[in-house]
Design a protein that fits this description.
Elements (H helix, E strand, L loop, with lengths): L12 H9 L6 H12 L5 E4 L9 E5 L4 E6 L1 H4 L12 H24 L3 E6 L4 H17 L7
């Protein structure tokens, strides 16, 4: 990734190819989850900011019920089962992945303070089970009074 400050270049052509192929949205895991949600009759926004003042976007957003869903990649978000740290540039990657986890925690906290329910789904999770969990949360959220009516 030449040109970005403090970002080491790729350690190999293979690493470069993998990084270029990594999608920021519409990943296979996101598409499978969205299909499972859609089959349940749920409608939602995709890649949408829950709060205008928060420069982060939910992968799936249910604005009316205030449920924000993030589909986290095992590598990028430090999955306890599948997360790894590259051997090349190990210190930089440790710091980068730890910063991702801190940002995830900050996002969770800020959205919760604003009355949102945050659901995080690992990319390796069964999309049907995750969709069921989300559908239940959305239904519960629809029955909650909105913060401005409390």
């Amino acid at each position: 990734m030449p040109g970005r400050a403090n970002v080491p270049g790729p350690s190999s052509e293979e690493a470069s190819r993998r990084m270029k192929a990594t999608r920021s949205r519409d990943t296979d895991a996101e598409r499978r989850l969205r299909s499972a949600l859609h089959r349940r009759g749920l409608r939602f926004r995709v890649d949408s900011p829950p709060l205008p003042e928060l420069p982060r976007r939910a992968d799936v957003l249910f604005a009316r019920s205030r449920v924000a869903v993030f589909v986290d990649g095992c590598f990028w978000h430090g999955c306890p089962l599948h997360g790894t740290t590259p051997k090349e540039n190990a210190e930089w990657w440790r710091d980068k992945l730890a910063a991702n986890r801190r940002r995830d925690s900050d996002t969770n906290e800020r959205l919760a303070q604003a009355g949102w329910l945050v659901i995080r789904v690992w990319e390796h999770e069964d999309p049907e089970l995750a969709a069921q969990r989300i559908a239940e949360a959305v239904e519960t959220g629809r029955r909650r009074p909105s913060p401005e009516k409390e």
